[in-house]
Amino acid sequence: MIRTADYLIIGGGVVGLTTALALKRRHSDASVVVIEKESACGRHASGRNSGVLHAGFYYTANSLKARFTRDGNRRMTAYCLERGLGINRCGKLVVAADKSELATLDLLKQRGEANGIELEEISETEAREREPRVRTFQKALYSPSTASVDPVEVMTALEEDARAAGVVIRKGVRCYGRGSDGSVKSDAGDLTPGYVINAAGLQADRIARTFDFCRDYRILPFKGLYLYEESPQPVRMHLYPVPDLRNPFLGVHYTVTVDGRTKLGPTAIPCFWREQYGGASGFEMREFLEMAWRQAGLLLFSSFAFKRLALEESRKYSRSTMARMAGRLATGSDPGQCRVWAKPGIRAQLVETAHRTLVSDFILEGDGRSLHVLNAVSPAFTCSLPFADHIVDEVERHTG
């Protein structure tokens, strides 16, 4: 085990690997080590996400997400094409259920224009020409740059590229954070890096607190489940509803995978521990009590409708409910054709504790010794390449 390095990155997800690559490309002589507690990189959100490359029109123009999603879509698309990775450039329709949603549809169009994103307002008839099953009221938004990739394939390629660039990746090494002597504690012994970058996803707040960061935030995990639809007439492109812009979730939608399969979902079900993928997997009593207490506070005092969100999301465990909700977007939605659940994923959603609000944008905290990526939520996979450059910029700002 390497005990020292110029840069130590905690977490071998997409943010950790792309940051390692960005560091090596900018500082080729520096030693960069990535430690990952699992036996493979991308075992959590990075390898379990939908694989959608988003375009970036949901976010206000002054947000990091808006810039990084736009640029990340272009760069990840180019990366997949250059590396010969699978990509389905199927496009996306955002549809309105009724007249009340047209104003938000217009707002999304304005945000897309402000962010420099290719986005077309089309009529109901034009929407059906692109997707015969679509349901929409009067008009829809068409995003030609929204695509799908295989996240596991992308993670494999990024790991290969990182190793080829000279990055050392150590798997099966769990980090416990900073010790009282200033070293980084791990189950492989004490490490003494020059600089630490915490990209630990679901565990990022835990580790950050040992460095005296993340005082105002905590991670609240949400489980995302997709349901495969086996229809004789699969949809051709992603179909999304007009979102509720008050929360960071996009609602039940149709996702077309890289190989053309159709999924309905996802859920956004609050979890009672960070890695609650199923059954008692990953259970920790201390964490269970902490999450239960945090959710109780949100139920009683949150500034958004957490109780309504939790109840609505829990109902989506029903396949018939999921199919019914998807039926608002497309004709021919049949619960009988929706039998198989996809592999669950968990979103590491940051909560601002004082006001009990969900944080939508990326959050970084750091100093001259460490930097902590606290909120790398969706669409972090799409954003990862430009976001990694931003992380390195922040490292250099703190150490310069």
- Structure summary, number of beta strands: 23
3D shape: globular
Please tell me the overall pLDDT: 93
Q: Which structural class fits the helix and strand makeup?
A: alpha+beta
Give the percentage of residues in beta strands.
15-25%
From the N-terminal CA to the C-terminal CA, the straight-line distance is: 29 Å
Q: Name the poorly predicted regions.
A: none
Strand order of the largest sheet: 9-2-1-13-23-22
Main sheet makeup: 6 strands, mixed
Helix content: 25-40%
Measured on Cα atoms, how large is the radius of gyration? 21 Å
**Helical stretch tally:** 11
What do you see in this structure?
The protein is an alpha+beta fold. 33% of the residues lie in helices and 22% in strands. The protein has 11 helices and 23 strands. The protein has helices at residues 14-26, 45-48, 64-83, 102-114, 124-130, 151-164, 204-210, 285-301, 306-315, 319-326, 380-399; strands spanning 7-10, 32-36, 52-53, 87-88, 92-95, 120-123, 139-143, 147-149, 168-171, 175-178, 184-186, 189-191, 195-198, 217-224, 227-229, 238-241, 253-256, 262-265, 269-270, 345-352, 357-358, 364-366, 370-373. A 6-stranded mixed β-sheet has the order 9-2-1-13-23-22. It starts with 6 loop residues before the first strand and ends with a helix. The relative contact order is 0.19. The mean pLDDT is 93.
Key features?
33% helix; alpha+beta; six-stranded mixed β-sheet; four-stranded mixed β-sheet
Topology (elements, then pairings):
Blueprint: E1 7-10, H1 14-26, E2 32-36, H2 45-48, E3 52-53, H3 64-83, E4 87-88, E5 92-95, H4 102-114, E6 120-123, H5 124-130, E7 139-143, E8 147-149, H6 151-164, E9 168-171, E10 175-178, E11 184-186, E12 189-191, E13 195-198, H7 204-210, E14 217-224, E15 227-229, E16 238-241, E17 253-256, E18 262-265, E19 269-270, H8 285-301, H9 306-315, H10 319-326, E20 345-352, E21 357-358, E22 364-366, E23 370-373, H11 380-399
